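B., you asked whether I could sanity-check this one before it goes into the benchmark set. Here's the sequence:
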Amino acid sequence: QVQLVESGGGLVQSGGSLRLSCAASQRTTGTYAVGWFRQAPGKEREFVAAISWRGITTNYFDSVKGRFTISRDNAKNTVFLQMNSLRPEDTAVYYCAASVRWPTIATSQKDAYDSWGQGTQVTVSS
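And here's what the prediction gave me:
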């Protein structure tokens, strides 16, 4: 199982930017895809973006396409989510998750992910 820790959340004004990081533990070996999900109060957790192990395949939720970019640095066991042009509706707790079973695809399906981080809060003010 991959242990994950998110960071980089915070409060930002509408139109601003944040970069989230998802760091896997130093003991992590093997290959895994990573997905970012978010959950706003009273809503279900929803898919945001995903990236395959080698970064060849990425996948984005429609509402974040063109604004968010997912990338990874496997030498540092870290995945990034660059979020630009943030909107109040992006406010949520953001979670990263790892899929060891499906490392070569960037799936939006929550059930494909085996390990989850604790989440980081992103708040966008209008």
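One thing to flag: The two ends are 39 Å apart (CA to CA). Otherwise nothing jumped out at me.
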